[in-house]
Amino acid sequence: MIVQPPAGGAADARHFVIAMHQHTAFAGSLAADFGNDAFAGLEPAEPMQYIVDHHDAGWADLDARAPQNPDTGLPYNLTATPLAQIVATSAGSPQFNEAHHPFSGIISSMHTYGLYCGRYGLSDKIFLDLIPDDMRPQVDSMLEAEESRQHRLKQDLAGDDAGLADEDFIFHAYKQLQFFDTLSLYFHLVPEGERGAAEFHNVPRTVGDDVTISVSERPGAVYEVDPYPFATDGLEVFTEGRYLAPQPPGTDLGPVLAATPVDTQTVRLVQA
């Protein structure tokens, strides 16, 4: 669950609560329009679109329950979710995506593994360093299982389509997913008007050719992107979510959220 604060940060105001499937749907919309003369599109197209659309599928049960953060009266925000709950979601996404296609499963497993291990060197944030000693055996076991899953699925692909099992090609696809995910988080974690400028490193144009993409916020939910990686200039993408004010302690937020109307936030991406 992502809990976006209101502009200005008033704690008692309504927050925009985004379930992870709504976050991944937004990322999927970016992926569906990714690619132009300078940037290669998704390949293999359908398995890649699927993994982007479902890269956080392991959060579904937790989001449905929406456990309350006693400090805010709202669901736990992604970055504040108790570690035990985060770890419980970790293997669910690769398992879900593997059932669709081996390539989807590999990229999903790499996404899970990378979140704990600095996104395979693409980030200096090492989540594994924050895991307390009493949880390390559980986390280490999960990460070992994901490494085994990746090895097994690569062997499966090598027998069917050796090109898809190429390590450089796989890492290229992984970096595409990281761009869609982190760009989505740029919009989802912070409210309109406070997002400012950001840089996204290691965005692949083609296999082995990466660039840094800059995004700059302009008035009216318009965002200049340079270089521009999408097929449509003026791409409009929306996020679904629910506006929710803090609830009294002990509130079962699952039914409350389910009964709250779905709203949207729309952004427009343009060439700088």
Give the CA-based shape: globular
Termini separation: 32 Å
Instruction: Profile the largest sheet.
Output: 7 strands, mixed
- The overall pLDDT average reads 95
Q: Count the strands?
A: 7
Order of helices and strands: EEHHHHHHHHHEEEEHE
Q: Could you tell me the strand content as a percent range?
A: 15-25%
Radius of gyration, Cα only, in angstroms? 19 Å
Number of helices: 10
Helical/strand content category: alpha+beta
Into which percent range does the helicity of residues fall?
Answer: 40-55%
The main sheet orders its strands as 1-2-6-7-5-4-3
Extract low-pLDDT stretches: none
Sum up the structure in keywords.
272 residues, alpha+beta, seven-stranded mixed sheet
Describe the structure.
The chain has 272 residues and is an alpha+beta fold. The chain contains ten helices and seven strands. It has helices at 20-32, 45-53, 60-65, 83-90, 92-98, 102-116, 118-121, 136-160, 167-188, 253-258; strands at 2-4, 15-18, 197-206, 209-218, 222-226, 235-244, 263-271. It has a seven-stranded mixed beta sheet. The longest helix is centred in the middle third of the chain and has 25 residues, at 136-160. The radius of gyration is 19 Å and the shape is globular.
